[in-house]
Amino acid sequence: xxxxTAGDKVFVSWSGGKDSYLSLLxxxxxxxxxxxxxxxxxxxxxxxxxxxxxxxxxRQAEALGIPLETEEVTWESYENGFExxxxxxxxxxxxxxxxxxxxNLPGHREWVEKMCKRCTINHNLPLWLMEECKVLEELIKxxxxxMVVAVRRDIVDESWLGxxxxxxxxxxxxxxxxxxxxxYGEVHTLVVDGPLFSxxxxxxxxxxxxxxxxxxxxxxxx
Length: 222
Description:
The protein is 32% helix and 26% strand. The chain is an alpha/beta fold. It has a five-stranded parallel sheet, with helices on both faces. It has a four-stranded antiparallel sheet with strand order 7-6-9-8. Strand 2, helix 2 (54-64) and strand 3 (68-72) form a beta-alpha-beta unit.
């Protein structure tokens, strides 16, 4: 679903993971002018969506050759933060639309539509209603490398942490009846290489942090 017109200036809502990355590729292929990536971060400097350190996202953006914009929010202030960030990008970068990596959760699409309407910008969802296995297959076919950085350990085995998504992971999800794209928080990823990268992302892996049902792999800048 692309509502913007070729040449329009847009931002990509950026988690650093596979869905936002594939959305970036598809947006570029439809000739949208991606002027920046937009990530929402907490007071701790970690991204709200995947818990990745801002510096890792910034290094990733540098490798992609696209500026990274950040906005500090809490979950309670997320909508106000979104509106504040978009208004800033409209004024400073001339954006008229946003690109989002949502796939099939109606509530997520409704939120995007509501917020973009409030901010008077177009919303673009290049992955909307794409079959989940196809999303991963498309990423892999294009040479995108997405590393698993967090799992719901009550659903996905921790042994996947630090591994690159591949056909084996797709088969694992199908056999287990797991959402391949982790639409319910089963897995989060960090894209470390692929099209548009000038060089692979440099990083170091730290400890695995466990909180309630989630296991998160610490990723540090190299």
